Amino acid sequence: MTLPPADLLPADWPLWSTSQPTLLKPLTQGLTNRSFLLAAGEDRLVLRLNSPISNALDLNRPAEAEALHLADSAGLCAPLVYCDPEYRYLVTRYVSGTPLTLEGNRGIPQLAQLLQKIHQLPPIAAHLDIEQKIANYWASIDPGDVFFESLHSLQRRVQPSIAATQTAHSSPALCHNDLLADNLLVSASGQLYAIDWEYAASGDPFYDLAVIAEGYGMDAAQQSHLLQQYLAQPVDHEEMARLDQWRVIYRYLSILWYAVQLSNTDAGVEKRNFTAVLRSEIDAIRKALSRSGH
Asked: What is the number of other CB atoms lying within 10 angstroms of the CB of residue 1?
């Protein structure tokens, strides 16, 4: 099946393929991008078309490209084929794999080892500024949104966690910042890859740990195990508290992300889905904040 060039295949495809690619199947119709599996001769490639609301979602495509080149050189991501200089699309080699699970004894050590390798890469210029990211998200949220006041109220309760992380003294490291299960693939050979680097920035490595802890729904014992494996030493109360602070911040940023999506969609079904997710997430973070005394 040949891709309709005007619809999907970038006109400048000869820059990255010697034969015109054909479409094998869509891979995702994600909330931020659309991805397609292509055949180009014997090669299998992934074409990712960027979201039209990249700016609203505060995506930094130049930072993503910089991080990808570093991760590619270290063998930590799907091999990079082409980054469009205008940041409209991205092409990588296809990695056949399955999402990483925590079943058995290998999952958490694998995650810790991957994080160590990512955080040892040179930091990039883009920095994760939490206050600025929150402000950028707020600029794309409709003031008439039914959740508008609830989100403002939550921010006041999250602010102590933000303030605490800003006083922590840690050297900025390159972070992926979106290491959810769907972005962690185990190849047939057992190698763990991180994909979808569009939120990459330099910052506190504990944010990556927090995303993983929240994304996998880790309990306290699993969080402690992850930290111990990552730090390669026993974990103390201060380190667990630092992880908890970043977990709160990640959950709040995730809620704002969904609020941006809600404010930028007109589709009835999608709007109802985002509304349901937001209602559930706001209720969950309120309960978590109450338990921690915020």
From this structure: 8
